[in-house]
Amino acid sequence: MKISVIICTHNPRKDYLQKTLNSIRMQTLHTCDWELLLIDNASQPEVRLPQGWLDGLQAKLVYEKQIGLTKARLRGISESNGDLLVFVDDDNILQPNYLEKAWDIYNKYSSLSAIVTGK
To answer: How many other C-beta atoms lie within 10 A of the C-beta of residue 105?
Structure first.
């Protein structure tokens, strides 16, 4: 497994989270090369995905009962199988080639321990 995409969320805006998840589904990197971990961090009510949404993806929804971003991220890390961890906020929309570019950077600059993107 190349990449683990980890989204931590707490009481997300459904419309924002849906756009984020849709952008992840549209990635050009083949789905066999990455997994998606959606960490529900003590949301009330719990996050639910539409029936069949995870079909065709290596993905799972994980519930973390202890509130806090650090707890959620640590849970995501412990559940991950990827060589590269990509943390995505629950209101971000990724470009379709985002994971491909992240993998290229990871391979080109293997001594880096973190890559930060954004404006």
So the answer is: 14
